[in-house]
């Protein structure tokens, strides 16, 4: 298997293998149905390195003697779509080779050696049952078989079928796109064998990175039940209060810690027809739903949209529609006027309450501020009060109907709809007591489960009742109120799932400043947590890491290994550009040079620390964040990793040792291609050229697999599929390296510089690009500096140079570019817009 296809897909974990019998290990999977959902589930299983069988129907009217290609037309089209899909379905497109395709008529025998069969055909009970009758003839008797239905009763699909099938049958509801959406709703039936569920959960947790939520077999399960209620309520309130679609999207976006798409952009992405299908499940199952809004109905204007096939992004027209271009050639998005069904230019609405809330960084604090604003004076507050209080009541009334406890509901909404806080966590943020008191005054219904929480708090003398309480004595660090038992219980997490926040509650902090902290992770391993805004690397982080990891540090003497990571959404967006720009604009060149030297000293401290340092990057790992990772003893990345030395985008080159490390890796790769004591030859050039393009073009990986192929990760680096296991996996790796007997590397003084011949070739390539007007003059200047730093300057090829020499070249190039007006313009533009400027 190539390095780009996730050779090390199985993460290190403290999970106990003997919890699952050998015959329940999942080594091969079949996916029945190659539509959008089925094909993407197959792709993600291939991402984990497993072989997959993907089957679909034969196109209607196709003759039995037709060529295989015609009979496999649907599944072939699905595979082609997977390879081109955006966002990408595969970590690396090479993983597609793990998928074996076929059709239901000719190839069902391929499922015979599959451990897990996933049914993902049309949401039609009879179609599903007919397929299962055929599957019965070919499946291994102990194979697990599940359905990805989004709302049909799981038990109903196999009603009356043999127990041999029913005991291995349950629901596994993935969310689209399966690679990116972490939620997996597991829905058991009374007949389901618990060991089958354990096997699938173990596999999906470790190998697919899923957050497992247990749902009852009720219509729409958990996430779609709560999510559809919330979206339907937002639409109802929009109509009652005379709001516009874009106003509702602003109100139901990032201000609440919900995705910035809001209600209607999300609807376009999911598909208006899909939303309608989920909503009609409420009506179809109304008699079975203990639900104050079982009659959830589509707004009349949405019914008209369905008739006109305005289904969202897939038909290029829904609640929004792209019409025309702006002055810079970007698509203009128009929005539907729901009252007239005409499209109009999309305006960015502004609400005073939202503008004030932007200054509040904490989502918890923002929710309290927005919910308790004066509804008589603020249009946003008038919308938020019924939206959120009805959500709180609705969610509380769903326990134990749709799930055993509130934790399952919160987890489903956070991982299925990407809410930062679940509804019960939002209720806590708003203040349960204060909110409920206002609800009583307003005469609105209050859930019986809320009354149980309030009664418990009163009985135990708790002034501020809450659904969750911190408790460092339990592994998760958290308790939840269970309205069924009327008491608090520990939030249960799987072995290996933890966070720095949980560990800090139990162990405290060894050392900290504004940007970073040192935490005792236990077992002789310390964690260095980055926690500045976006984890931008300023003086505070640089100083703490340097002082912590230097050989004379007391902390180094007290620990045997280190892990650098964080709990945030992104590992690091790179250096603190605001600090840099201020220094440059004030022409404080000595201070700027000192800051660059300090950054280089930090990365060298990481590399030459007497103890092993494992960096666990995730999310965005850009610029200086990559340089931290490059210098570590080892890396344990999360699979979803957007990694790149992007300094060229702000008019600079990597200045913290990034070029130096990529030169060393080029030399190593070149030597393996064509051994040469002096570092000459085609091999060196090929490796260096690739790294030059990566840096000069500011390329960013779209996965850890791609980061490996770009040279940022080594073949020996591990990989974690489940974000919640990243800290444990990194700690396990650091502990293993220490136990193996670690010796810090020796500073290199014998690096064979690629030299002036390679430099000349790279500069010629830059000149050619400029002559062809593919790049600007400033792009060319940056690229030439990149080439200069990577080649070791104008020296004879193979000249032995030191690491410090290469660092000095980087610093020279970095400082020179800082003095360029166009670089300063790029930095200022990025700080203002978050986007790169090509000037």
Description:
With 839 residues, this protein is an alpha/beta fold. The protein has three domains: 20-215, NAD(P)-binding Rossmann-like Domain (Rossmann fold, 3-Layer(aba) Sandwich), CATH 3.40.50; 223-488, N-(1-d-carboxylethyl)-l-norvaline Dehydrogenase, domain 2 (Orthogonal Bundle); 502-824, 2-enoyl-CoA Hydratase, Chain A, domain 1 (Alpha-Beta Complex), CATH 3.90.226.10. 43% of the residues lie in helices and 12% in strands. The strands form six sheets. Strands 3-2-1-4-5-6-7-8 form an eight-stranded mixed beta sheet. A six-stranded mixed beta sheet has the order 15-16-17-18-19-21, with helices on both faces. Strands 9-10-11 form a three-stranded antiparallel beta sheet, with helices on one face. Helix 26 packs antiparallel against helix 27 and helix 31 packs antiparallel against helix 32. The radius of gyration is 28 Å and the shape is globular.
SSE inventory with pairings:
Layout: E1 29-32, H1 36-47, E2 52-56, H2 68-71, H3 73-84, E3 99-103, E4 116-119, H4 125-135, E5 144-147, H5 154-157, H6 163-166, E6 169-174, E7 183-187, H7 194-206, E8 211-215, H8 223-241, H9 245-251, H10 262-270, H11 272-284, H12 300-307, E9 320-325, E10 331-337, E11 342-345, H13 352-357, H14 363-371, H15 379-396, H16 406-416, H17 423-430, H18 432-442, H19 448-459, E12 468-470, E13 478-482, E14 487-490, H20 500-507, E15 511-512, E16 516-522, E17 525-530, H21 539-549, H22 554-558, E18 561-565, H23 577-585, H24 589-607, E19 613-615, E20 619-622, H25 624-630, E21 634-635, E22 641-644, H26 658-673, H27 682-696, H28 704-709, H29 726-739, E23 751-752, H30 755-771, H31 777-791, E24 800-801, H32 803-818, H33 821-833
Parallel strand pairs: 1-2, 1-4, 2-3, 4-5, 5-6, 7-8, 17-18, 18-19, 19-21, 20-22
Antiparallel strand pairs: 6-7, 9-10, 10-11, 12-13, 13-14, 15-16, 16-17, 23-24
Helix pairs in contact: 1-3, 8-15, 8-16, 9-10, 14-17, 15-17, 21-24, 23-33, 24-32, 26-27, 26-31, 27-31, 30-31, 31-32
Catalytic activity: a (3S)-3-hydroxyacyl-CoA + NAD(+) = a 3-oxoacyl-CoA + NADH + H(+)
Pfam families: 3HCDH, 3HCDH_N, ECH_1
GO molecular function: (3S)-3-hydroxyacyl-CoA dehydrogenase (NAD+) activity; NAD+ binding
């Amino acid at each position: 298997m190539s390095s780009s296809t996730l050779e090390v897909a199985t993460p290190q974990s403290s999970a106990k293998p003997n919890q699952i019998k050998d015959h329940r290990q999942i080594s091969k999977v079949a996916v029945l149905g190659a539509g959008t959902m089925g094909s993407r589930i197959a792709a993600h299983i291939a991402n984990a390195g497993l072989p997959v069988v993907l089957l679909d129907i034969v196109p209607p009217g196709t003759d039995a003697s037709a060529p295989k290609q015609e009979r496999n037309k649907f599944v072939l089209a699905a595979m082609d779509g997977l390879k081109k899909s955006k966002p990408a379905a595969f970590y690396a497109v090479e993983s597609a080779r793990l998928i074996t395709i076929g059709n239901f008529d000719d190839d069902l025998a391929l499922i015979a050696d599959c451990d897990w069969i996933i049914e993902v055909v049309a949401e039609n009970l009879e179609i599903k049952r007919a397929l299962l009758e055929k599957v019965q003839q070919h499946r291994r008797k102990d194979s697990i078989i599940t359905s990805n239905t989004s709302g049909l009763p799981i038990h109903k699909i196999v009603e009356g079928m043999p127990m041999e099938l029913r005991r291995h049958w349950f629901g596994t509801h993935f969310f689209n796109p399966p690679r990116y959406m972490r939620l997996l709703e597991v829905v058991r039936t009374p007949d389901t064998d618990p060991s089958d569920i354990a096997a699938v959960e173990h596999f999906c947790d470790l190998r697919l990175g899923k957050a497992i939520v247990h749902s009852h077999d009720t219509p729409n399960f958990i996430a779609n039940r709560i999510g559809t209620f919330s979206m339907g309520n937002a639409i109802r309130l929009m109509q009652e209060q005379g709001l516009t679609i874009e106003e509702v999207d602003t109100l139901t976006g990032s201000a609440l810690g919900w995705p910035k798409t809001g209600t209607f952009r999300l609807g376009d992405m999911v598909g208006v027809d899909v939303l309608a299908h989920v909503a009609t499940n409420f009506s179809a199952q109304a008699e079975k739903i203990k639900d104050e809004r079982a009659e959830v109905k589509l707004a009349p204007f949405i019914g008209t949209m369905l008739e006109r096939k305005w289904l969202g992004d897939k038909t290029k027209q829904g609640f929004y529609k792209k019409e025309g271009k702006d002055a810079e050639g970007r698509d203009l998005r128009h929005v539907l006027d729901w009252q007239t069904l005409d499209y109009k230019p999309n305006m960015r609405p502004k609400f005073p309450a939202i503008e004030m809330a932007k200054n509040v960084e904490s989502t918890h604090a923002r929710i309290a501020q927005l919910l308790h604003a004066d509804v008589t004076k603020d249009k946003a507050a008038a919308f938020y009060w019924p939206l959120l209080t009805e959500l709180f009541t609705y969610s509380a009334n769903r326990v134990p109907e749709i799930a055993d406890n509130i934790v399952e509901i919160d987890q489903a909404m956070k991982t299925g709809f990407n809410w930062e806080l679940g509804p019960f966590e939002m209720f806590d943020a708003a203040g349960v007591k204060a909110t409920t008191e206002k609800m009583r005054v307003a005469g609105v219904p209050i859930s019986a489960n809320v009354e149980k929480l309030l009664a418990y708090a009163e009985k135990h003398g708790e002034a501020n009742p809450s659904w969750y309480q911190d408790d460092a004595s339990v592994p998760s660090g958290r308790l939840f109120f269970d309205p069924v038992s009327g008491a608090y219980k520990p939030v249960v997490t799987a072995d290996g799932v933890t966070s720095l926040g949980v560990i800090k509650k139990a162990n405290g902090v060894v050392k900290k400043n504004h940007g970073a902290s040192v935490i005792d992770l236990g077992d002789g391993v310390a964690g260095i947590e980055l926690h500045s805004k976006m984890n931008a690397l300023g003086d505070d982080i640089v100083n703490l890491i340097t002082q912590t990891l230097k050989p004379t540090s007391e902390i180094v003497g007290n620990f045997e290994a280190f892990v650098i990571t964080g709990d945030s959404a992104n590992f690091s967006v790179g250096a603190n550009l605001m600090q840099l720009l201020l220094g440059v604009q004030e022409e404080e060149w000595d201070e700027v040079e000192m800051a660059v030297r300090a950054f280089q000293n930090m990365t060298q401290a990481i590399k030459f620390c007497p103890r092993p340092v494992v960096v666990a990057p995730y999310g965005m790992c850009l610029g200086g964040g990559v340089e931290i990772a490059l210098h570590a003893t080892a890396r344990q990345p999360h699979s979803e990793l957007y990694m790149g030395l992007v300094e060229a985008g702000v008019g600079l080159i990597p200045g913290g040792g990034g070029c130096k490390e990529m030169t060393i890796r080029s030399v190593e790769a070149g030597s393996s291609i064509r051994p040469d004591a002096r570092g000459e030859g085609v091999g060196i050039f090929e490796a260096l050229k690739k790294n030059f393009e990566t840096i000069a073009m500011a390329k960013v990986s779209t996965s850890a697999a791609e980061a490996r192929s770009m040279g940022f990760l080594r073949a020996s680096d591990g990989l974690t599929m489940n974000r919640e296991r990243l800290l444990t996996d990194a700690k396990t790796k650091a502990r293993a390296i220490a136990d193996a007997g670690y010796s810090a590397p020796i500073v290199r003084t014998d690096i064979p510089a690629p030299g002036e011949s390679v430099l000349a070739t790279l500069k010629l390539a830059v000149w050619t690009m400029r002559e062809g007007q593919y790049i600007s003059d400033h792009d060319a200047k940056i690229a030439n500096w990149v080439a200069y730093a990577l080649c070791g300057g104008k020296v004879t090829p193979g000249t032995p140079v030191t690491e410090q020499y290469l660092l000095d070249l980087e610093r020279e190039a970095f400082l020179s570019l800082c003095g360029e007006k166009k670089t300063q313009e790029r930095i200022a533009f990025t700080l203002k817009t978050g986007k790169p400027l090509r000037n």
